[in-house]
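Self-study notes.
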Amino acid sequence: MTYATNSPFENLDVVAASTRLDDLQVKLEAKQKVQKLNQALDKLKGYDAVFIDTPPALNFYSRSALIAADRVLIPFDCDEFARQALYTLIDNIHEIRADHNDDLKIEGIIVNQFQSRAKLMQRVVAELKAEGQPLLDATLSSSVRVKESHERHQPMIHLDPTHRVTQEYIALYDSLAR
């Protein structure tokens, strides 16, 4: 049984979240089924890559995703609250790697909603780099156009292929695909 649906975009299938996941989470947690996603992905055929997008909270589903993943890309909005959450997440990733998934690797931290002229953002990025955090060189700028792509349910590459943020996403993908 598969829950993937074809999207209107070539080579992209989507498994969307559902409100039924709340009820399922309780049942899966009670039976300690945190490996279910990993087992399901092991059976999956016909895909070159699977990207799992989780909410920012470390809950049952995001833990399951980290157990199933080979690599994790951490989006980071440059502020102090996000910074503290980042440290907690990195600690949790190390714990999950030690307990469940020896192969899990932090691919990097991608600075999201970046404003190059904002001194706070420049300072936070410089401090994280000085700490040795795995920040990627690529950043994703802030733009209302991204919100428009969400509203229209259309990837930026289809909505506005020449937009600066679209080009940043392409550069990020190319750097990760190497």
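Second protein, same conventions, sequence then structure:
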Amino acid sequence: MTLLSVEELSKRYKNREVLHEVSFSVGKAEIVGLVGQSGSGKSTIAKCVLGLERPDGGRMLWHGGSLADRSVRRSARRGMQAVFQDPRSSLNPRWTVRQLLNEPLDNWLPGESAAVRRARVLRLLDNVALTGDLLDRNPHELSTGQCQRLCVARALAPEPELLVLDEPLSALDVSVQAQLIELLLDLHRTSGISYLLITHDFAVVSDICHRIVVLDHGKVVESGQADEVLAHPAHPYTQSLLKAVLPLPEFDDRHRPDHGSTPYACL
């Protein structure tokens, strides 16, 4: 089942075309990597998908319904959540961890008793390997890695089907990157949540993605099953990105997805 379809998406800023007829899809329980260097249009795609920017052409579908439709957008606002590059700028510095987690729950799951809400908050923390003794701390009292885990917990609060991860590892050092990758894979394995992982780093997508979409100057230059793209990159741009790959520290291969198991064909 396809959750998100992006069809011939185009976007211009003044006289510059940032996206040119970009097409891809994300299926249920699928991890899709959108890869490209800075300026390739990756983050603009994320903003369009999340409703933060309005495209100039093409269409975006959520469960087959157009995101131009108000009722579909309402459904997608809960079903599609985001985690961004800089966790500290994503968190209100004056709020405690408790307040930061209660806010999305108040929006999407109002009316819960205090006991049910506390249990839900603790479960969200546990899902991202954080503990309840952090509840009354502010973001400045947490490490950058803890802040990013908190951002993931906030994104999980509405129980979404898809997480849009826009360079979620860039602000982290290499060892913490590996820990967050393990966390994301474990969440995927246990819940079946889908990811659209936006990154410049082929080392990341090669480890966790089922499919890869390569973007260069606002155009899709290559897409396919991860194993195929990695083993036989057809486009020179993809080949150049792969040559720059630096391996991440090893993590538990038991959480690695089976690249050959996903049934979704490339657009």
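Instructor comment on the second fold: The longest strand covers residues 2-13.
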